[in-house]
Amino acid sequence: MVLSTKDKILAKALILFNEQGSDFVTVRHIASELGISHGNLCYHFANTDVIIEALYQQLVDKLNELTKEMTGLSENQLTILYQLSYRSFEILYQYRFLMLDFVRIMRRIPAIKLHFKALMQIRQEQFTYIIASMQSNSFIDIPEKNIAPLIEQALLFGDFWISRAEILFDGNEQEKIAYYHKTFYALFEPYLCDNADW
Amino acid sequence: MVLSTKDKILAKALILFNEQGSDFVTVRHIASELGISHGNLCYHFANTDVIIEALYQQLVDKLNELTKEMTGLSENQLTILYQLSYRSFEILYQYRFLMLDFVRIMRRIPAIKLHFKALMQIRQEQFTYIIASMQSNSFIDIPEKNIAPLIEQALLFGDFWISRAEILFDGNEQEKIAYYHKTFYALFEPYLCDNADW
DNA sequence: TAGAATTTAGAACAAATGTACTAAAAGTAT
DNA sequence: ATACTTTTAGTACATTTGTTCTAAATTCTA
């Protein structure tokens, strides 16, 4: 399978962004790594911000696809929550520079900031729905006043575990994801009912 | 009270960093805002990294002072945990650019990264101690296996609530701090005992 | 195959930045 | 008052970067 120049640029940019951060990496670096001229690169993507937007879109598409796939499953909601979050963690890690440079990117690229705010709104509603649904199935038992904080905690953790791991975690990628996902899931554990078997 | 040039530089740099992020702000910007030459500024601080290190040191000093002050109190540990975290949140917010540009700064300035890793180690031990202490006083009741995840969650939240707030929270500074601190404190609520009166 | 569209390489330019240097000004100590 | 140190302003230079432009090469299409 042969990648188009556009795709090659995106793939290489993702690697460099993840390794070095979204600043430090310029159109010239990416072009140089690919062995093409930066003039050519700028023909496809005017600047690094455009590349970042394209990669962000890739991430969103992958997450949407995952959500669609998982909601079709017939497993119980607890299992779905577990697997959905695990696979989300894996996908997020692929695009980790977006999380590592979170604020900087949002400040620089208003389009991404707007989209992200909307995305968070949706995710919050999804969480609310899943929790209500688990509540009614007696998988979990959460006092009403604890629901909103729990969702906030979960969303925040989901966005920033990668940043913390980048500085503090010693271990390979798989261990990293597994460890932080386990810690993430532990947010819900105090509320699990006994009949939440899985 | 007249500030020395050094202190004026640090104060202005803090403002600019918080507003615009630690990149975008250069020695020339800071000098220009202060109405001094950048040559003069570089006489005091060779470059922005040195300024960032100095501000980081200010933050650490303030947090240490707070810790010392609070451990001298005779209140119960739950109250201390509450107040210590609240005032830590306030101090962190003063130096929020350090958290907003967390990964970037750690990557750029190895000295800060090393120090921060050591600091996290200490904070983890402090948390462990406080929790064990509250446990023995029957303020809280946490299953052994939930302690480590809870501490990890608390430390992660403490570091990154500012980043999340920067993008998503609409409201003034005091509301922001109060909201996120409340959410932070909610991490402990599932484990509070009834006799944890306050 | 001829012509058109797309893709590519490379040069050129302006702006910004870190860094170093010089010399003047201000302050301090003897 | 004189010599010395610290502080300040301003200049200069090399590098990097984003951006634009030109022309050649390649691919596509009819």
Total DSSP helices of chain A = 10
- CATH architecture field of the largest domain in chain A: Orthogonal Bundle
Q: Strand pairing plus helix content of chain A: what structural class?
A: mainly alpha
Low-confidence stretches of chain A are none
Topology order of chain A in helix (H) and strand (E) letters: HHHHHHHHHH
Name of the CATH class of the largest domain in chain A: Mainly Alpha
Most extensive chain-chain interface: A-B, 36 and 36 residues
Total DSSP E strands of chain A: 0
User: Can you give the mean pLDDT of chain A?
Assistant: 92
CATH topology of the largest domain in chain A: Tetracycline Repressor, domain 2
Question: What does this molecule look like?
Answer:
2 copies of one chain form a homodimer. Chain A has helices at residues 5-20, 27-34, 38-44, 48-71, 77-94, 96-100, 102-108, 110-136, 144-168, 173-185. The first copy, chain A, is an all-alpha fold and 198 residues long. In chain A, 28% of the residues are buried. At the A-B interface, helix 7, helix 8 and helix 9 of A face helix 7, helix 8 and helix 9 of B. The first copy, chain A, binds a DNA duplex (30 and 30 nucleotides) through helix 3.
Annotate the secondary structure layout:
The structure is a homodimer of 198-residue chains.
Chain A: H1 5-20, H2 27-34, H3 38-44, H4 48-71, H5 77-94, H6 96-100, H7 102-108, H8 110-136, H9 144-168, H10 173-185
Helix pairs in contact in A: 1-2, 2-3, 4-5, 5-10, 7-8, 8-9
Chain A binds a DNA duplex (30 and 30 nucleotides) through helix 3.
